[in-house]
């Protein structure tokens, strides 16, 4: 029996906690090739494609701030990977800015301009809203509360599998933007906009 390899794309705006999320789960990802765009930079595509050829399980971290990354997803899909998207989201560009500033002060983190933080937030939102359905499973995890990750929405393709009632306006904007482009089902749109707890059986 051939085991289907998996790709986990971990994305989100600046200072959403992508690297910390991966580091805290290294035991779970012990047999995965971990690829971070900040580390590999211009070699990212080469390292990624080589891992696909070797049929390695992959964790791929990216801000996903331009649509060119969809080519990487398509490459994995053609190689019959199971595609998972873990979207670590914040509620607003200002929240991302505040966390970037705090990280810089507390951890001597990377200094990123206000314009780049806002641009990355906007482009990340657009790309998630437009391309999430390329994945077999998408988990929307809110990371705005320190030391607490909250999984509030899971999608399989265009369909909602689970939703947890919340106060995050970001998800309302996501639902409206995605539904206007036929990227989520009417049921998913209604569940999110009406902000009601929801769960159904996962498809086989």
Automatic annotation (TrEMBL):
UniProt source species: Pedobacter cryotolerans
GO molecular function: ATP binding; kinase activity
Lineage of origin: Bacteria, Pseudomonadati, Bacteroidota, Sphingobacteriia, Sphingobacteriales
Keyword terms: ATP-binding, Nucleotide-binding
Pfam families: Zeta_toxin (PF06414)
Protein name as catalogued: Zeta toxin domain-containing protein
Domain Zeta toxin intervals: 45-147
């Amino acid at each position: 029996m051939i085991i289907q390899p998996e790709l986990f794309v971990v994305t989100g705006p600046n200072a959403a906690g992508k690297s910390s999320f991966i580091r805290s789960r290294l035991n779970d990802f012990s047999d995965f090739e971990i690829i971070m765009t900040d580390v590999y930079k211009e070699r990212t595509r080469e390292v990624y494609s080589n891992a696909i050829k070797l049929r390695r399980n992959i964790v791929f971290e990216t801000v996903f701030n331009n649509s060119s990354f969809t080519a990487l997803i398509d490459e994995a899909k053609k190689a019959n990977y199971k595609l998972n998207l873990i979207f670590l989201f914040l509620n607003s560009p200002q929240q991302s800015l505040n966390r970037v500033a705090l990280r810089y002060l507390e951890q001597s983190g990377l200094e990123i301009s206000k314009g780049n933080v806002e641009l990355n937030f906007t482009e990340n939102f657009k790309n998630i809203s437009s391309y999430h359905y390329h994945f077999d499973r998408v988990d929307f995890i809110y990371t705005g509360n320190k030391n607490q990750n909250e999984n509030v929405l899971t999608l399989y393709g265009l369909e909602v599998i689970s939703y947890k009632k919340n106060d995050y306006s970001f998800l309302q904007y996501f639902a409206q933007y995605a539904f206007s482009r036929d990227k989520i089902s009417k049921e998913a749109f209604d569940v999110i906009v009406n902000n009601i707890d929801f769960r159904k059986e996962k498809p086989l």
